[in-house]
Amino acid sequence: xxxxxxxxxxxxxxxxxxxxxxxxxxxxxxxxxxxxxxxxxxxxxxxxxxxxxxxxxxxxxxxxxxxxxxxxxxxxxxxxxxxxxxxxxxxxxxxxxxxxxxxxxxxxxxxxxxxxxxxxxxxxxxxxxxxxxxxxxxxxxxxxxxxxxxxxxxxxxxxxxxxxxxxxxxxxxxxxxxxxxxxxxxxxxxxxxxxxxxxxxxxxxxxxxxxxxxxxxxxxxxxxxxxxxxxxxxxxxxxxxxxxxxxxxxxxxxxxxxxxxxxxxxxxxxxxxxxxxxxxxxxxxxxxxxxxxxxxxxxxxxxxxxxxxxxxxxxxxxxxxxxxxxxxxxxxxxxxxxxxxxxxxxxxxxxxxxxxxxxxxxxxxxxxxxxxxxxxxxxxxxxxxxxxxxxxxxxxxxxxxxxxxxxxxxxxxxxxxxxxxxxxxxxxxxxxxxxxxxxxxxxxxxxxxxxxx
Length: 453
Prior knowledge:
Largest sheet: 11 strands, mixed
CATH topology of the largest domain: Anaerobic Ribonucleotide-triphosphate Reductase Large Chain
Number of domains: 2
Number of strands: 13
Radius of gyration: 21 Å
Number of helices: 14
Distance between the termini: 45 Å
Structural class: alpha/beta
Oligomer: single chain
Order of helices and strands: HEHHEHHEHEEHEEHHEHHHHEHEEEE
Helix content: 40-55%
Strand content: 15-25%
CATH class of the largest domain: Alpha Beta
CATH architecture of the largest domain: Alpha-Beta Barrel
């Protein structure tokens, strides 16, 4: 039985604490679009997306009006395009990205993910051609996002792919330098990529998914922070964990409702509800603010990693009781440019790249939306990716790197992207990567705990 108090509480979360459904993402299989002719394949891709997702935005907007629940983004994820690229001999596969971008604009979605490849055990010809096409594809498109998986716990780390992706990040930054290197904000490198992630830039539609599916990503850092702010000053961490769990449960039920309704009305399968707390540039809608509400003086200070671990654990435990369809990344995101509290922490000197790396060992993803000086070397970028992959591989969790080399900028400058991408302060980077480690190549062997069968 839902009480009047619970209804009022939910309304308060929505109207005053920035609670929203961050994204309704339709996953689409493009397997039937493969063709040896790149132009024919591009036409098939456009037709497939515009036909299947024609009603996505109208249905999501209808649910918003009927239930009073803001749905911030409507998105699409597709089959990793490298799988289609294998069918053609075209060296440049960016026409597929252009077709996807036109289709995304036609149906009215914010972003489309899936210009992607999985190369954790090695790169095929289609994978190589797709990766080589990423800088041009992201420079030519507005809505398309790219991702590459370079490591898994079962396979280890493909260090050749790590170095290639470092070069790709640098090339993408240069190709979009006139727009604050925004192409890199749409490019992420993964370890242990998941097949049902509804969040960008890493969303793909995995091979184990149905032809069409609806995945939902919730939000709610502001609601969690408000609950913690209302607790007694002497509340212990057990009480704080319980409060976060209860709040996460309520937030997840909102996501479950939206996912079921959207899937039913669109006539497709319901996939997962991603439990991730995803911050926005709005004041108060911040994961860093939650950490500070727990009692850490400033995000990045001693105690930050422990507080984030408690938050991540409590969100998962509460959310798992709110839906039987937990999936995606499900935890707490720490994207620097999208979190005002994180930006303040960086600019005050409390939060460093090294501390962010430590935090990624216990949070949902990894080093996310971080601007670095434009003269950062390829070897340094590769070292950062390798470090983050090692955390994911050894701990059997998803980790990722979304770095933005700020061409022509130095530490202390800011890159303004606008919208949910926010503003990124250019952070200091340890320059002692050397030139040899990243260029050795080969495969970083899988850890012993990968032998589970």
